[in-house]
Each structure stands twice: as structure tokens, then as C-alpha cells.
UniProtKB/TrEMBL annotation:
Pfam families: Thioredoxin. This is Tetraticopeptide domain-containing thioredoxin. PANTHER family: HSC70-INTERACTING PROTEIN, TPR REPEAT-CONTAINING THIOREDOXIN TDX. Residues 36-56 are annotated as: Disordered. Transmembrane segments: none annotated. Residues 206-331 form the Thioredoxin domain. Gene3D superfamilies: Glutaredoxin, Tetratricopeptide repeat domain. The keyword Repeat applies. One of its GO terms (molecular function) is Hsp70 protein binding. InterPro entries: Thioredoxin-like_sf (IPR036249), Thioredoxin_CS (IPR017937), Thioredoxin_domain (IPR013766), TPR-like_helical_dom_sf (IPR011990), TPR_rpt (IPR019734). The keyword Repeat applies. GO terms for cellular component: histone deacetylase complex.
């Protein structure tokens, strides 16, 4: 069945572009239609002071840090974001081990549309307290501003698990729409590339099959009787016929055989009528090894082989009977 399908493909597509991948079109990804309304240009300002976390924080400094923190909250209410940053920086210097101070400054940087600064502070906060929802929110919102949608959605989902924050929830819903589009887009092109890879592999497989077909076909002569020179030559020709799913007729003869002299021309004529069958001629005196392997007791002898198996053997002299058997097994 497989060999038959292969032969049909080869015959229908020989010398066609179907077995040539040179015409493959390069896959060029289209842009994804995303909501980029919250995306901003990255900030590259020098980092604000982060304090020295290796220095122990006294209770006095911890309490002192509450003053600039309170002033920062007042500045936020008045919309003075830069002033709030300055006050929070003062508080961080006094207490560089406070996760909430870093997270607070990170969220102000988000409002200032300085995502890189916000991420730097949010990660400092999370290093101190890995369960700080405010830190994940700041980092998630900052990554939204950088268009890092898949990273942003992870942080915002973590925020919603740790805290109830309406702003984070609203942004999460918005970001999830973009992420869904990105995932679908990526899956689409992954499938296209996979299909292209499979097609290339199939074309390569078919190319090799065609090369094998051509190699086997070159050993045979359509419509002609092939004279066998050795036992190995016989095996090679029969194997080629089997690979091409062709019927092979093996005719054992000898020069001294009277009936063979009469049969020879008829055999040649039959061969011309069935070009897709393989007609082989073995002289038992010249190729004794083959005659021995096939246990030839009398001549002329005919053996019909298909797909590597003998399907008919004929020892009596009846060319009409032989041709009828060829017709029967030819298709």
C-alpha cells in the first residue's frame, strides 16, 4: 500500500515544484493589534539614592523616617509627585530596610511614567518582603508602561492574590486582553513554522524516495529483456523491481536448449508489450550460482516475482499461459 502510494506520487509529481522547496515563501510575522495606550518611552535617569541596606537601622532612624514618609503622602495628595519622590528618598536613606518605602516610591515613579525607576524600587521592596502586594503592583504597572505584557500580567495577578486593589484589577483585565492576543499570535506562527518544518521534512523524504526510485529505475529497462550476469546481479534487479512494486519475470535458459531458441523471440515480444514489468533472462551455464540457488531442474523455466515473493512458476512450454499470468499479476 505504501509503496503504491509512493509510486503514484512520484509519477504525478516527477520534475514538478511539488518536490522542490525552493519556492517556499518566508513566514513574516504581522504586527499584533494591541492596546498600547499606557506604554511610554523608557526612562534612563540616574538612580535615586537607595540607602545602605547593610547598615543596621536604629529605632530612632525608623521613627525619623516616618516624618518624610508622611510629608510624601501629603505631597501626593497635592499632586506634587517630584516632591513626594524627594521625601520618600529621604525616608529610604533613614530606613533602607523598609519594603513599604521602596514600594511607595516605586508607585510614585509609575505615576511619573518612569517605569525603569519604578521597577528598580519595586524589586528592592520585594527583595526585602517577597509577599508585598504593593511591590508587585508597582512592578506590574511599570512593565505595562514598557509594553512587557506577559511579565506585567504575572505581577498584577500576584497583586490581586495578595491584596484587593481596584486599580491593579482594572489594569489586569486590560493587560489580559493584550496577552491573549499575543499568545494566540505566537501560537498561530508557531503552528505555521511547525507546518513549514513538517512540509520541508516531507519534501526531503519524498526527494530521497524519488532519488531511490530513479536509482532503481535506472537499473531496469522498460520493455526490454535484461540479461543477468551474476547471481548478485539477479538479486539486485529483483530488489529494484520489488522497490518499484513491479512484476519481475525470471526466465532461465541455455544456448543448447532447442525450445529456448524458439521461446526467446516470443519472450522479447511479450516484454515490449508490458514495459512496467521487468523481464530477466538467466543463462544457467553462464550464471551457475543463480541456477543452483533457484534449484533449476529443467529449462526453459519461468518464475514470476512481485514484492520479493514468487507468485507463479511455470515449467511447461506455454507462452500463452505465461502471458496470461503476466496479465494477471501485472497491475
Amino acid at each position: 500500500m505504501l509503496r503504491s502510494m509512493y509510486l503514484k506520487f512520484i509519477e504525478s509529481n516527477k520534475d514538478s515544484a511539488l518536490v522542490d522547496d525552493s519556492m517556499e515563501v518566508e513566514i513574516i510575522e504581522s504586527d499584533v493589534d494591541l492596546d498600547n495606550s499606557d506604554v511610554v518611552e523608557p526612562d534612563y535617569d540616574p538612580p535615586k539614592q537607595m540607602g545602605d541596606p547593610s547598615v543596621g537601622v536604629t529605632e530612632e532612624n525608623r521613627e525619623a523616617a516616618q516624618v518624610p514618609k508622611s510629608m510624601a503622602m501629603d505631597a501626593l495628595l497635592e499632586g506634587k509627585l517630584d516632591t513626594a519622590i524627594d521625601h520618600l528618598t529621604e525616608a529610604i536613606i533613614l530606613n533602607p530596610k523598609s519594603a513599604i518605602l521602596f514600594a511607595s516610591r516605586a508607585n510614585v515613579f509609575v505615576k511619573l511614567k518612569k517605569p525603569n525607576a519604578a521597577i528598580r524600587d519595586a524589586e528592592a521592596a520585594l527583595k526585602i518582603n517577597a509577599d508585598l502586594g504593593k511591590g508587585y503592583k508597582a512592578r506590574g504597572m511599570a512593565k505595562v508602561q514598557l509594553g512587557l505584557w506577559e511579565e506585567a500580567v504575572k505581577d498584577l495577578r500576584t497583586t490581586s492574590k495578595l491584596d484587593f486593589d481596584e486599580e491593579a484589577i482594572m489594569m489586569l483585565k486590560k493587560v489580559e486582553v493584550n496577552v491573549k492576543k499575543i499568545v494566540e499570535h505566537r501560537k498561530k506562527y508557531e503552528n505555521l513554522r511547525k507546518a513549514r518544518g513538517q512540509r520541508k521534512a516531507e519534501l526531503e523524504r519524498l526527494r530521497k524516495m524519488q532519488e531511490a526510485h530513479d536509482e532503481f529505475a535506472s537499473m531496469l529497462k522498460d520493455g526490454q529483456v535484461i540479461r543477468i550476469d551474476s547471481s548478485e546481479d539477479l538479486k539486485t534487479k529483483l530488489n529494484a523491481a520489488s522497490k518499484l512494486s513491479r512484476l519481475a519475470i525470471v526466465y532461465f535458459t541455455a544456448k543448447w536448449c532447442g525450445p529456448c531458441c524458439h521461446i526467446g523471440p516470443i519472450y522479447t515480444t511479450i516484454a515490449s508489450k508490458y514495459p512496467k514489468a521487468v523481464f530477466l533472462k538467466v543463462d544457467i551455464d553462464e550464471v551457475r550460482e543463480a541456477a543452483a540457488e533457484w534449484r533449476i531442474q529443467s529449462i526453459p523455466s519461468f518464475y514470476l516475482s512481485k514484492n520479493g515473493e514468487v507468485v507463479h512458476e511455470q515449467l511447461e512450454i506455454s507462452m500463452n499461459s505465461l502471458e496470461n499470468q503476466i496479465i494477471h499479476h501485472y497491475v
